[in-house]
Write a structure and sequence with these properties.
With 98 residues, the chain is largely without helices or strands. It is 0% helix and 0% strand. It has no helices and no strands. Belongs to the PITHD1 family.
Length: 98
């Protein structure tokens, strides 16, 4: 994530409140955060201080093992050339329908 990405529409926005004890919870939209592999958070402003200190961010949920799929190499042709795909075992036949 870069600062250019921060201008995009976020999946969810939270209005944070000061929480010196660390008891506040912010519910997420479950449909938006299912099967998340990477999470980036952007804090555009703080509560009037010059700097911001974040001591803890806790995430609730169920852990599931990531299923990594192998890389598939595919070639796509806008207009295929049948001469490039000749098969030796296929015998060309013609059929007439009257």
């Amino acid at each position: 994530m870069s600062f250019d990405d921060a201008a995009r529409e976020p999946e969810q926005t939270f209005s944070l409140n000061p929480d010196p004890v660390g008891e506040l919870e912010y519910p997420t939209k479950i449909a938006r955060f299912s099967n998340v592999h990477d999470l980036s958070m952007y804090f555009p402003k703080n509560f009037g201080a010059e700097t911001m200190k974040i001591f803890y961010i806790g995430l609730k949920g169920e852990w599931t093992e990531a299923h990594r799929h192998k890389v598939t190499i595919c070639n796509y042709e806008a207009s295929p050339n049948p001469a490039d795909h000749r098969l030796q075992q296929v015998t060309p036949q013609s059929h007439c329908i009257s």
